[in-house]
Write a structure and sequence with these properties.
The chain is mostly helical. It has a single domain, classed as A middle domain of Talin 1. Helix content is 46%, strand content 0%. Helix 2 packs antiparallel against helix 5, helix 3 packs antiparallel against helix 4 (113-134) and helix 4 packs antiparallel against helix 5. 24% of the residues are buried.
Amino acid sequence: MKKIATVVPLLVVLLTATTIPAGAVPVRAEEQVAPPAACTALVTKLSDTVKKVIAPLTAVPPDTTKVAAPLGDVLGVLTEMQNTKCLPTPPVSVPAPPVAVPAVPGDELARGPEQCLSAAMNLFSIVFGLLAKVVPGAGVPDVTKLLAEVTGLLKALTDTLSACGLPTPPGGLPAAPGLPSLPAPGLPAPGLPVPAPGLPLPAVA
């Protein structure tokens, strides 16, 4: 719970920060500053931590009580990435008015500070949304809906790495989770002993 408590002030900052409008000053792809070398290790750490979020949701049976702690760790890694300039921090002042930039043939604005900030804030928002559903006292969450939101988290993470020019971790990001496989009718759940012939199956708690 201490980990979760430390990220609550960050939520307040993210919700009250001024977002940059789409018409703000664009920055061309070649103007984007290369991320620090430490970002590669942090991206790998973030990917490994997201795997710990997925694991209890795809276990048989799923255990939603073990999701809050790794989600808090995800927020901790994201904050560390902001502190090391791998990810941008939200602006605290009103952005400058839009400035017209002459179009250059073949010049793409697919990446830049604005796109990176937007993707990163979306990623934070999704993680906070997930965390709000699994913290103690939030009630019993729907595993199917949580898995769908984790899939959205993975997409947001992919978009953030692309928009911010960050590398993909070795082996790639975790795959989108699916519903855990249930045992076939007449078979015990994984981890339960197989009964002797003629004996009833053991009850599943």
